[in-house]
Amino acid sequence: MKSADIVIIGAGIVGAATAYRLIQMFPNRKILLVEKELQAGLHQTGRNSGVVHAGVYYQPGSLKATLCREGLDRTLAFCRQYGVDYQQCGKLIVATDDIECQRLDELYQRCLKNSLSPQRISREKLAVIEPHITGKEAILIQQTSITNYAEINKRLIQLFEQAGGKTIFGFELLGVESEGEQVILAAENNKLTTDFYVNCAGLMSDKIAKLTNANLDYRIIPFKGEYFQLPASLNKMIKHLIYPVPDPKLPFLGVHLTKMIDASITVGPNAVLAGAREGYGKFGVNLTELSDLLKYKGFWKLLTKQKASVYNELKSSFFVKSYLRNIQKYCPNISLSDLRPFRCGIRAQAVNMDGELIHDFKFLQEKQCLHVCNAPSPAATSAMPIADIIAEKVYRAI
User: Fold this and answer.
1) What are residue 225's phi and psi, to 5 degrees?
2) What is the DSSP string of 37-67?
3) CA 67, 228, 383: angle at the middle one, nearest 5?
4) 161 Cβ neighbours under 8 A, 6+ residues apart
5) What share of the chain in percent tops pLDDT 90?
6) Pairing of strands 191-199, 369-374
7) Helices marked H in the chain — which ranges?
8) Lowest-pLDDT range, 20-34, 150-164, 249-263?
9) pLDDT tens per residue across span 270-309
C-alpha cells in the first residue's frame, strides 16, 4: 500500500518550506515530511546567526542573488503575518584600509545591480552612528534584518500540517529501491512507499543522492562556523550588524558582529574544515565520514587552492587571540575576556571534482526524485522562493 504521493526528506527550513508549498499546490495529495531527528531544525536551520540577507555579495543575475532578494521580502512578510519576531536593523560593511576601500566600491556597485539601496558612510559619520567601530569608510544596507529561523521553521511545519500534511520524526533514510512506478524509502525500522521524493537533507544531501546515483560530480564538505557571544553588558555596543569587507579570493565573509533577535551580540563565524557533518564539539570527528572525505579528489584540490585560507581558519580556531585580531581590526574595544562560549554551526558546502566551491544553488533531477544538492547561505533567507522552484520541478515530474 502506498504511504504517500510525495515525501520530503529533511525538516530544516528548506524542507519545511517545500512541504508547505507542495501541500498548497497539491491539496488532494498525501504528502509526508520526514526527519531523522526527533524534532525539526536542529542543524543548519537552528545553528545560524539569524540574518535575513539582502543580497549584497552575490553575482547579479545569479539564482542566488535573485532568490535572496525575493526571499528577503517574503521572509519579512511571513514574520509580520505570523507574529515571528524580526528587526530590520541594517548592515554596515566596514573598510579599514585602502585595499578594502577599493573592494567596498565594487560591493557598492553590486548592491545597486542587485536592486538594493546602499548608503555610503564616511569615517566621520561612522564614528557618530557606531562609536565603537573603526574604519576608513563603510556602506550601509538598511534592508538587512534579523529573525529566528527556528521559529519560522516551526510555523511552516504547523501550516503544512494544518493543510493536511503529516510529519514523521526519527526516520533516517538508509536505502532506496524502485518498484515499478513507485519507490520504497527504507529506514532502520520503517518503510515508506511513494511516487516521488524530494531530498532536502542539507548536510546529508549527497549521501542520500548517492543511494540512487553513485557517480555524483560533487560532495558536501562540512565547514564548522565557531561563534562567541559578548557579555550582556555589551548588548548595546552596536546598532547595526557589522561586517568586514570580504576578500574576494576567499570563500567566506569573515568574522562579524551580529545583533541577535534576543538582543544579545554574537561574534563570528570563522569557517573551519570539520571532521564530522554533525560534530559540534571542538574535536568532533566521524571516522567513516572523514575517511570518505579523504578519498574524494575534490577535497585535496580544494586544500591546494585554499591552503592559506584553511591555515588561517584553523589558526583562528585553536588560538583565540588570532580570532580576536580579526574582530579588533574594526572593533578595537573588544577584549579576550569579552569572548564567551557560544554554540557553533556547520555549513553544508558542495565542492566539485576540481576542488571548486559551488556557490549557487544546485539541483539534480531523477525519474522518481529531486535532490537539492547545494543550498548554501542565504538558503534560510531564500527558503520560500527555493520552495517555489522545487514545487515547480515536482509538478513537471509527476
Assistant:
1) -105, 115
2) SSSS--STTTSS--EE---SSSPTTSHHHHH
3) 15
4) 167
5) 87
6) parallel
7) 13-25, 63-82, 98-113, 123-129, 149-162, 205-210, 287-295, 297-305, 307-318, 320-328, 383-397
8) 249-263
9) 999 999 999 998 888 999 999 999 999 999 999 999 988 8
Residues in the chain: 398
State the cell numbers at 200: 532536502
**Residue owning grid cell 584553523:** 314
Q: Measuring CA to CA, which residue among 53, 46, 44 is closest to residue 346?
A: 44
User: What single string gives the DSSP state of each residue in 145-200?
Assistant: EEE-HHHHHHHHHHHHHHTT-EEEES----EEEEETTEEEEE-SS-EEEEEEEEE-
> What mean pLDDT comes out for the span 355-378?
92
Query: Measured in whole angstroms, how far is the alpha carbon of residue 205 from the centre of its chain?
Result: 14
pLDDT of residue 124: 97
Peptide bond into 378 cis (omega under 30): yes
- The three grid cell numbers given for residue 385, joined into one nine-digit string: 522562493
**Residue 211 contacts residue 175 (beta carbons within 8 Å):** yes
